[in-house]
Design brief:
It contains eight helices and seven strands; from the N terminus they run H-H-H-E-E-E-E-H-E-E-H-E-H-H-H. It is of the alpha+beta class. This is Pyridoxamine 5'-phosphate oxidase family protein.
Length: 201
């Protein structure tokens, strides 16, 4: 087993100079363009109860650029586990991975977060008259873009490789198994499209 940093460095060698230079402590024009184009960001956090990686998604640009060192992410209704928010209350470190459909490159942003419940800020993120529940304010400490190799290897954006939803268990079926069969999977799946639509914001 590999157990030391020295072993790791020996195995992989030094990072390429370009890989070092692409990390900066702010969002330049190119990195801001990636944030504005992204409808999906994976939010990673750490807290006393463990790690969390959760998706946040909306129309492209839903993550607001306050300035080159500050981002604002609206929080919408969800399952109320609040894993990310609980972590951030205890440990402000946060990592973001911005994904853009059809584009191989992704943007990684690391920083520290605060959770704002300022009424004016929440209202500024309102959709269909419903303000954000809270807003995660991220102070950028490092930003860098990842090359496209992961998406090239996975062929993720190739529509010919996309699975039909029926290829995997439905959400209702998963709940039923987790509840030892004591769950109405059919009703859950049947009602889900309207339920999701009604609770997006």
């Amino acid at each position: 087993m590999l157990t030391t940093l020295e072993q790791l460095d020996t195995l992989y060698g030094k990072p390429h100079e370009r890989a070092v230079h692409k990390e900066i402590a702010f969002l330049n024009e190119d990195y801001q363009a990636m944030v504005k184009a992204s409808p999906l960001v994976i939010v990673s956090s750490s807290g006393a109860d463990g790690l969390d990686g959760s998706p946040r998604g909306d129309v492209p640009g839903f993550v607001r650029i306050i300035d080159e060192r500050t981002l604002a992410i609206p929080d919408r209704p969800g399952n109320n586990r609040l894993d990310t928010l609980r972590n951030l209350v205890l440990d402000p470190r946060i990592a973001l991975l911005f994904i853009i459909p059809g584009i191989g490159e992704t943007l990684r942003v690391n920083g520290r977060a605060q959770i704002s419940i300022d009424p004016e800020l929440l209202e500024s993120f309102a959709v269909h008259g419903k303000p954000a529940r809270s807003v995660i304010l991220v102070q950028v400490e490092a930003a860098y873009f990842h090359c496209s190799k992961a998406f090239v290897r996975s062929d993720c954006w190739n529509p010919d490789k996309h699975l039909e939803r029926s290829a995997l268990p439905s959400a209702g079926a998963i709940h039923k198994r987790l509840n030892d069969g004591q769950f109405d999977a059919e009703a859950y799946d049947r009602e889900m499209p309207e339920r999701v639509k009604a609770t997006l914001y």
